[in-house]
Design a protein that fits this description.
About 70% of the residues lie in helices and about 5% in strands. The model has no long low-confidence stretch (mean pLDDT about 90). It has one domain: Winged helix-like DNA-binding domain superfamily/Winged helix DNA-binding domain (Arc Repressor Mutant, subunit A, Orthogonal Bundle). The chain is mostly helical and about 150 residues long.
């Protein structure tokens, strides 16, 4: 016999959090496999995405990608070194501060990233309704909990 779930119940929240996490994990699994199939390690794909997707006017340096990827500085340096050796990006010395290097994608890096980005957009288009529904339910629960706590 299955228990009837109602929006404010703890079980309702847990089920929706589990559903949301499951859909996120499916996307991450897809992303990791797509990167590997394209000849990249998943972190290299994320590195290329952060460099290419930086806001206009942002000087993309090791510290920027380290923060965006949640890596320590030395781990980001190793990832950039490997990606540079594989012809995915270049480093140029910052004209204003010779201690800093600006990261830019090469043609090869851009080509791989464009293909992966298209694949990712299509996958997200398929997953979006389920992700959005779970997130909507979680937000409803959060709002009803906040109202109840305020009373």
């Amino acid at each position: 016999m299955q228990t009837q779930l109602f929006e404010g119940s703890p079980q309702f929240l847990l089920q929706n959090l589990a559903d949301f996490r499951f859909e996120l994990r499916k996307f991450l699994h897809f992303s990791e496999n797509a990167a590997l199939e394209a000849g990249l390690q998943p972190q290299q794909h994320q590195l290329l995405l952060q460099i290419a997707g930086a806001p206009a006017g942002t000087s993309v340096m090791i510290s920027y990608v380290a923060e965006r990827l949640g890596l320590r500085h030395n781990s980001a340096v190793e990832l950039v070194d490997r990606s540079e050796r594989e012809g995915l990006l270049t480093r140029t010395v910052d004209a204003n501060d010779k201690r800093r290097a600006i990261l830019r994608l090469t043609r090869k890096g851009n080509q791989i990233l464009r293909k992966l980005s298209g694949d990712h957009a299509r996958e997200l288009n398929d997953l979006a309704p389920r992700l959005a529904q779970a997130l909507k339910q979680i937000c409803k629960h959060s709002q009803s909990s906040s109202i109840a706590e305020a009373r």
